[in-house]
Amino acid sequence: MVNALSKNIEHRNTKMFLLLQLLVIVLAFMSHEHEAMAAYVPPYTSVVVPVNKHTDAAKPLYSVEIMTAYDYVNEQYLHSNFLIDIDAPFIWHDCIVQWNIYPGSCPTNTLCTYAVSCVDYQCTTFRTSYSYKNPSCPLETNTSSFPGWGDCTCSVNVFNPVTGSCNQTLINYDDFTVNVSDGRKIFSGLYDAHPYAACAPHSTFASFPSNVSGVMAFSSSPYAFPAYFYQPLKETLALCLPSKASVPGVLFFGTGPYYLFPQSNVDVRSYLSYTPLVTQPDSFGYFISVDSIVIKKRSINVPANTTTKLSTTDPNTTLRTDIYNGVVRGFTKVTKQLRPAKPVAPFGLCFSTSTVGLKVPDIDFSLPDGKKWTVSTANSIKQITNEVACLAFVDGGATSEPAIVIGTFQFEDNFLEFDLENSTFGFSSSLLRKQTSCANFNFTLTDGP
Fold first, then answer.
1. If I label 252, which of 85, 314, 420, 444 is the partner at 20 to 30 A Cα–Cα?
2. In 3-state terms, what secondary structure has residue 3?
3. Whole-angstrom Cα distance, residue 351 to residue 213?
4. To 10 degrees, the CA torsion angle through 142, 143, 148, 153?
5. Mean pLDDT of 140-154
6. What is the DSSP string of 126-160?
């Protein structure tokens, strides 16, 4: 009896020991797998899209090309072009919303997406914090519904960056796809994002450049495109606008490195200087501080606490009248050798030139901590005709706010980095002085992740 009991206890102890051994092995395996996952570094560092310049609208504009849907018949992705807007709170584009999408339910050559109901919390959030508020905007109502489904859509107003008008859209669930990159080349691997966006009628985009059918929000809003990218991608937007419509620039979201031909081994980040981004109430855009504007060692005073906005929809730098007058006076003093020409709207200072490629002194935006953003001739002088070139700075009026808006002509062939995580803005000044440009990224598709 005692021997039987002893054997039973020994058997149970053996089983317990084996179970403990198994548990240790499983935990060790899980730990190893966890360490392997933690140590895994993907072969890509960012998503990447081409940037196109458009000159067939009322003002120069820039777009990104995004994959919006998959064509199962032809087995390929459909592409759409979206205006780059670093101020817009959310994405909106040419599409329609449906409650039930099935084969044949979507009209030909139309992008169909699922509707967000007016009773969903997202509808309330969009209307409360992200809808464009202006007396010209139509009333946001819950009366729009689809027959037979008994539910209402969520109408929200948006600001049209081309016309400056208010347009009404319907909030939807969307899908966008982009390629990934290691900063040197573009991979065939894809990254999917699933943002809340909004659909607008096709007629809304009549004033947009040809083949552009939406607005891609790259602001700091929690409903802008950057908010829908996750680890391992870092919260950094890098933008390089092309100066010509014939070749694309590049936009990255993620982190560096970034490479441009012909310096294929030089990380463009080595060219960047950094200044803090400044937040402004009731805005998801990007702002910096400018202490003064310097032209050939002559400093033009910028009043303290002056707001400077960065814009991808304003074509030129706009200055409040007091600052603008100081810049024009200073620039006139250092360009006395140039023959003046009759101003061409919207510019106030123009020069006669029979040779394209006028050379003038640099204009420096003096920033905190001794940093300076240099605006060279390529970004300060706009050639209007073969005989006339103008200073590409515009008088915004005596009460314009923000007092300084740096526009896209000053962005061209400058590499800009918006670090949303650390709230800093990096800028290269003109890449042309580095013997490269925004048109020099390698978009050749490479097999990869």
1. 314
2. helix
3. 37
4. -40
5. 73
6. IIIIIS---TTSPP--S--B-TTT--BB-EEEEE-
